[in-house]
Amino acid sequence: MTDEKKTPKIYVFCNNKGCKDTGTFRGWHNMQALAEDGTGLAGHLCSNHAFAAHDMGIDANGWKRDLYAKHYPDGFEVVWVADPENHEGIQAAFALPDPTAKTEESSA
Question: What is the pLDDT of residues 61-70, one digit of tens each?
Answer without folding.
Answer: 999 999 999 9
